[in-house]
Amino acid sequence: MKRIAILSFVISLFCTSIYAEAPAGYYTNAKGKSKEALKTALSNIISSNYKQWSYDKLYTIYAESDVTDDGKVWDMYSTCTWTPGQKKCGSYKNVCDCYNREHSIPQSWFNEKSPMKSDAFHVYPTDGKVNGQRSNYPFGECSGGTSLGGKALGRLGNSTFSGYSGKVFEPDDQYKGDFARTYFYFVTRYQSQMSSMSGDSFAKNTYPSLSKWSIDLFLKWHRQDPVSQKEIDRNDAVYSFQQNRNPFIDHPELAEYIWGNKMGQVWNGGTALNNQTLLDEVLINSTNQKGTLYIHTQETAQLRYTIYSMTGRMMQQGTIQGSDNYITTPFPQGIYILQLQAGEATKTLKFAVQ
């Protein structure tokens, strides 16, 4: 028999907004702007006071920015486990042999120039073998494709996404939003250099900087895979080294104002207060039904929910609307994380399946 138990002693610790805290006034110069002007203002903000580190220093940064709860390297290309600083790649033959530094925006696209080469916001620790498989293909979606199997994540195949038919690498679903926000960051941070860059994801201009098909793709991923605690922690960790931030993690709505369904509207700094108040009033409890979570809200607004395992793997996601909602959780016994999102505000808590 499996029952849901809400960890009440944990709720007080975890039922908080999980969006990262930027320094007071960090985004002030972007307020009151829209579309291209907004993107340019953000570019100026995240380029000012940027501290460049050496390429070798990335492994030191990863020990702070890309670690799991049990202290292992957090790899978005595999479920392999490494101790930070150990098993760094030289040569490799198989998945899980070693990890190295993956440029989510391939180095060949920007001619291996600095500071892009060592910018930790787009260079991630990943399995060497899967990194090699991805090569310099753009991110995309494919049907079937080739996976390296075992602990490898992602697959390589011909694009099935409208607007592009070339070969693409499709990352695991749980990390698609991460990579979308990485690309939003990159083309904003380096917009003045986009005209000299290659890559089928790019438009070679300062605005919109991304090709039409990649805008559609990344907005889709951005919406379907909202900001996670992993990204928030990483944003803060990288900031401590580079002294700049990824605005699309701090304020996910910015992507809509620059490329999406709010394009042309003025951004005034985000208005998460009402949504956060809504989330603060949410009641969550167990039910008499096996493996069922009950969520009661004071409003009928639509909420998005995502359930993660304690290792960060996405287990289930969907939307709820109305005051009384029941979510079936057919998971093995253990502790899980529930994330609720209302607009730009997010609330998380832990619960147990017993």
Feature tags:
single chain, about 350 residues, alpha+beta, Immunoglobulin-like, 2 domains, 5-stranded antiparallel β-sheet, 3-stranded antiparallel β-sheet, 10 helices, globular, disordered N terminus
Summarize the structure.
With 354 residues, the chain is α+β, with helices and mostly antiparallel strands.
Written account of the structure:
- By secondary structure, the protein is an alpha+beta fold.
- The protein folds into two domains: 4-15 and 272-353, Immunoglobulin-like (Sandwich), CATH 2.60.40; 32-258, no CATH class.
- Helix content is 26%, strand content 19%.
- It has helices at residues 8-14, 35-47, 58-65, 128-134, 176-189, 212-224, 229-242, 247-250, 254-258, 273-280, and strands at 4-6, 99-103, 123-127, 155-158, 167-170, 283-286, 292-296, 303-309, 314-320, 324-328, 334-342, 345-353.
- It has a five-stranded antiparallel sheet with strand order 1-12-11-8-9. A three-stranded antiparallel sheet has the order 6-7-10, with no helix packed on it. A two-stranded antiparallel ribbon has the order 2-3.
- It is globular and about 55 Å long.
- It starts with a strand and ends with a strand.
- Residues 1-20 have low confidence and may be disordered.
Which helices and strands appear, and what pairs or packs with what?
Elements: E1 4-6, H1 8-14, H2 35-47, H3 58-65, E2 99-103, E3 123-127, H4 128-134, E4 155-158, E5 167-170, H5 176-189, H6 212-224, H7 229-242, H8 247-250, H9 254-258, H10 273-280, E6 283-286, E7 292-296, E8 303-309, E9 314-320, E10 324-328, E11 334-342, E12 345-353
Antiparallel strand pairs: 1-12, 2-3, 4-5, 6-7, 7-10, 8-9, 8-11, 11-12
Helix pairs in contact: 5-6
